[in-house]
Amino acid sequence: MNPITLIASRYLTSRKGVSLVSTLTMISISGITIGTALLIIVLSIFNGFFDVVKNLLLRYDPDIRIESTTERIFTRNFELEDKLTSIPQIVAVAPFIEGKSLLAHQGSAEKVVIVRGIDTETFFQVVNFDEELDESERNLGVVRRMPGILLGQQLQSQLGIALEERVSLLSAEGIRRSVTSFSGPRFYTFDVRGSFFLQQVYEGSIVFVDMEAAQRLFNRRDGLSGYDIKLTDHEAADEVKEMIQAVLGTEYTVSTWYDLQKPLYDIMNIEKWSAYFILMIIVFVAVLNIVGSLTMIVIQKSRDIGILMSFGYTKLQIRRIFLRQGIMIGLIGCGLGGAIGLFFSWLQQKYELIKLIGSESFIISAYPVSISPVDVSLVLIGSLILCLLASWYPASRASSLDPSQVLRYN
Description:
It is a single chain. The chain has two domains: 3-57 and 264-408, no CATH class; 64-260, no CATH class. Helix content is 55%, strand content 17%. It contains 15 helices and eleven strands. The strands form two sheets. The chain has a six-stranded mixed beta barrel, surrounded by five helices. Strands 2-9 form a two-stranded antiparallel ribbon. β3 and β4 (109-118) form a beta hairpin. α2 (19-57) runs antiparallel to α11.
């Protein structure tokens, strides 16, 4: 064993001397252990909630969305679609047209909704709720001279609309045309083919119709609002975004799944890292005890330090002895805290021991947990750095002792 490590470990584990030294050392280790464990558990819970929200939104949000930078609705570009499908990471490209309309049912119930015209062949490759719909419900084309429409279950219940009933849509463009031409507004009628459920994130305001029907509704033949893209791995969205933007240039805006809900995701990340810095205060307070315990060891072992210097140990080597002690305290505390934090996180992840209050009205029953190796590394490295910084003053004090003075008066 390295002599510096051997001396540091003997000083740390020696039972001789003032009991306050060992007490302060145990307080330091305990504080670091508790702080590290809490940090890992709390960050894992924040990660769990982030994953729950992300997976919920990704049921409808695409991995990447392309829209025009100049027009709300632009002319469909088949050459652009060929370029997109040639990119290996892209699984599906779903064109869509979107706009607001007034939905009416039986001449009385009315509500402003977002109408999205879709290509059913590609749309259900991008979104993840097609398992709730059978083949007839996903068919939004013309059947018995009537196009189909999909409604959210919340909207369906709110307006009292049953399956196979008919609803009418009037677009904002249709209202404008009726006013300028002094004619009655033109409603488009649809059969209700099915309903979908999206945890009330979108479903209350969005309805789906066939692409051609939506283009007629908005009076924009061959018009599109954009393209939704499904990737082989949504985590590669930023990389693919750069590739697509390089191909398309500045005429189009390319947004990833994160960009589409950026305010929400940013707030969740801010909350997570705020909790990280706040809980690091617990570790910092525990680390302050290292200063006291190592300083007392320096005072207690001053004669030993003088002897080591007389044997030829340099000031740098003396400093390393006490820095090594601080690192040892940190390693013990971080090791125990990391093990405890990972163990309890695993228990919660596997057995859902701690339930959410009011979980009957939420989509999950217990606190979600997702262990991130990066977060665990940041916690352990941050705690060790604090321990090293706390050891610097006692180590510097030990290295500045004058061996002649120490040996004379001890």
